[in-house]
């Protein structure tokens, strides 16, 4: 038994305010729960939106974070797929497995208590321990050859990029694909779009360091967002436009630019998290047969992506992780990640000293 019943966690205190503080250890609340000791965790752009106040349903006092790798230390009586001691990936999406949407593999829309809950509606992963609901579908045992730093990229960014960007955009052989935004999600879109043998992938961003990273993971051409990417796309497609354009920024200007670069009959896949309204220019689009998709990741592809990571078919963390911190440096990591234009941060990963014991039920 542990001598104390508190742990450290990053707590949202209201727009613009967080703190790394003592909070109660999580325990089993439902028979389908697992408690995981966190070994590696990362920060998502969505976390920055929460801190800014763009996600008002996140209540002050919530532990942030929805991506982690760790070790199971306790499970509820109904959990069958993992047990204490197992090394697991904690998915950003929980799935009850019973509701209509879960039966359709739309776990992000779960109506049975799952969906995006961690760091949103319940305490999340940016802590020393996390309680994961519906553990049988919401944590994934890790192959021995996959490192924690690689695996944590599969908690959110790779499934999001693959499902909401590549699959929704129906990327196919020979396609011209434009990815607007070369942050972690955009880079993962580039890497997973390559699996479908497109004719070319063009990455757009303001930062040269991110464009270089895009080239390293497979982009065929890059262009600064300040240098008229629309003209480049027109030049490369004989004025027709791109087959698929993926919005991976989350600002109105980027979305509207995407709709100007897509060809008639093409697809715009919006992945970015938007905190402000964007204008849908139907006066230009109504006659172009354009398909626009949106989506919250479902993580139905996580087992596939885990196998591909283990087989070396996806970029390692070294292609995206630019900064590493101890778990207790959470506030410093947020500062570095939030000032990416200055710090050059792409993805940050945190890990640190672990508790040796955990309070168990009963």
Automatic annotation (TrEMBL):
Which residues does the UniProt record annotate as the domain Enoyl reductase (ER)?
16-350
Would the keyword Zinc turn up in this protein's UniProt record?
yes
Tell me the superkingdom of the source: Bacteria
The UniProt entry, under SMART domains, shows: PKS_ER
Q: Name one GO molecular function term.
A: oxidoreductase activity
**Region forming the signal peptide:** none
Query: Keywords, A to Z?
Result: Metal-binding, Oxidoreductase, Zinc
- Which EC numbers characterise this protein's activity in its record? 1.-.-.-
Q: Which InterPro entries match?
A: ADH-like_C (IPR013149), ADH-like_N (IPR013154), ADH_Zn_CS (IPR002328), ER (IPR020843), GroES-like_sf (IPR011032), NAD(P)-bd_dom_sf (IPR036291)
Cofactor(s) recorded for this entry are: Zn(2+)
Gene3D superfamilies reported for this sequence = Medium-chain alcohol dehydrogenases, catalytic domain, NAD(P)-binding Rossmann-like Domain
A Pfam short name: ADH_N
| Protein family | Belongs to the zinc-containing alcohol dehydrogenase family.
Name listed for the protein in its UniProt record: Alcohol dehydrogenase
